Amino acid sequence: MFRPFLVFSLVGSVLIGLVSSHSESGEWHCDSDAENRIEAEFKPGIITVDGHADDWSDVDGFEFSLLPALDPDFDHEYKAGKMTVKALHDGADVFFMLQVDGDYAYTKGESKKCPSVALMFQIGENASYHNMGGCPEGTDSCTNKTCRGHEVDIMHFSIGTAIPGRLYGGNPVDSKNGNGADSFGHLVDLYAWNPHCRYLDGPGPAGNDSSAQNNWKGAWWHSSLIVHSGFVEEDSPYASDGKKGTYYFEFSRPLRTMDLLQQDAQFTIGLTSKMAVAFWYPVDKKPWYGSQHYSVGCDWVPFDIVSSKALLSSLGSRSSWDAGSAFALLFSVISLCVSVFVGYWVVSRNKSVPFTPISNSNL
Ligand SMILES: *[C@@H]1O[C@H](CO)[C@@H](O)[C@H](O)[C@H]1NC(C)=O
Ligand SMILES: *[C@@H]1O[C@H](CO)[C@@H](O)[C@H](O)[C@H]1NC(C)=O
Ligand SMILES: *[C@@H]1O[C@H](CO)[C@@H](O)[C@H](O)[C@H]1NC(C)=O
Questions:
Q1: In whole angstroms, how large is the CA radius of gyration of the chain?
Q2: Ligand 1, from 122, 126, 137, 262: best to mutate by most atoms within 8 Å of Cβ?
Q3: What is the domain range of residue 87?
Q4: Does residue 224 lie within any of the structural domains?
Q5: Is residue 299 part of a domain?
Q6: In 3D, which of 138, 133, 131 has the Cα closest to residue 153?
Q7: What are the tens digits of pLDDT across the range 90-144?
Q8: 18-74: per-residue pLDDT in tens?
Q9: Ligand 2 pocket residue status of 99, Cβ below 6 Å
């Protein structure tokens, strides 16, 4: 009786979820896949943020179709392949690896003729995936007061100025200026209330706050690149144009940051956040424009930061080991008591048997 009811209520809640996302707003149409999910397990000490994916081989990935973000229609899916997202945490930092097939495209200094990726996370409880937080105010009226609760956190990596395998993102120069810029590449830390009210961490419509930082680090790679001691800018474009292969984008960020302004998502071990992943590619060698990107879903994807405790209990090994060893201990105590008693009983019964010196026995 219980099971069918559970199944029905699950199906029911999935249907309700789909219906409510359908009616999100006007023309917006989203058939969000209720199974979509990204998990970051606790796996310390295996990842180096260098753009290479071999150290991720033992980490399960989550695979997503890439549909146009503004018109999530399967007819316009990114044709070269799906995106695999892997994540893990080491107790202090969270790590991401994004893998997507794509012919090698690289034009130095022109990020719109290179692939690009972004991650977006919910900060404010009322921030929607659709419209980057969904604050209804325009550019002249959005402020941290009028858009309170609609904050989203964004990391955007454009590789046109980034050497493959090198680390970009947070650095002392930009952190000294108190903002989320990246003067050495273009791996920036942003926040937004909607697509038109989008800023680097720190600056805002009411002035610049000097307490912000770029908390992200990241690197990129393509499988057609030849691994050697390291590239420099002169090696650009690093590999030959149009070579088949896979792009890799790897990132890390502390679970918690020193943000005071609701401009960074804060992650907690054992809790679920909401995230999205965007991908730009110069299809047919045509430069992309800002809103022309693919997305791994048409709504937030739940993002679990899994506690190592949850992993242990899900294996079920710990509790059964405890029960088994308790039983073994009890059993051995009982056998000890029984053997002591039997020994005592034998000795006391044989008390009357005279002691026979060994010399008297017939050897
Ligand atoms: C989110 O929206 C609800 C309902 O409109 C409102 O009660 C709540 O205060 C909002 N949260 C924030 C942080 O603004
Ligand atoms: C705020 O920062 C931006 C870029 O970080 C800069 O261009 C602008 O001049 C700054 N504004 C003020 C008022 O300091
Ligand atoms: C809004 O931003 C201004 C300028 O950065 C800051 O002084 C103020 O404390 C912020 N208010 C809230 C509610 O975050």
A1: 30
A2: 126
A3: 20-306
A4: yes
A5: yes
A6: 133
A7: 999 999 999 999 999 999 999 999 999 999 999 999 999 999 999 999 999 999 9
A8: 333 333 345 677 777 888 999 999 999 999 999 999 999 999 999 999 999 998 889
A9: no
Q: Coil, helix or strand for 337?
A: helix
Residue located nearest, by CA, to atom 7 of ligand 2? 203
Q: Which two tokens stand for residue 152?
A: 């989203």
CB of 164 closer than 6 angstroms to any ligand 2 atom: no
Contacts (Cβ under 8 Å, ≥6 apart) of 157: 116, 117, 118, 168, 169, 185, 186, 187, 218, 220, 249, 251
pLDDT band at 15 (very low <50, low <70, confident <90, very high): very low
pLDDT in tens, 162-180: 999 999 999 999 999 999 9
Enumerate residues lining ligand 3, CB below 6 A: 144-145, 204, 206-207, 209, 261
In the reported structure, the alpha carbon of residue 137 is separated from the centroid of ligand 3 by a whole-number distance in angstroms of 17
Nearest CA to ligand 1 atom 13: 149
- Ligand 2 near 169 CB (within 6 A): no
Q: Is the pLDDT of residue 356 over 80?
A: no
Structural domain includes residue 326: no
- Mutational pocket test of ligand 3: of 148, 201, 261, the residue with most ligand atoms within 8 Å of the beta carbon: 261
Average pLDDT of 266-288? 96
pLDDT, tens only, 227-262? 888 999 999 999 999 999 999 999 999 999 999 999
> For ligand 2, is residue 179 a contact (CB within 6 Å)?
yes
Residue from 71, 103, 113 nearest 288 by CA: 113
What is the domain count for the chain?
A: 1
- Could you tell me if the CB of 125 is within 6 A of ligand 1? yes
For residue 200, the ligand 2 atom closest to its alpha carbon is 5
DSSP H/E element including 204: strand 203-204
Has residue 8 been placed in a domain? no
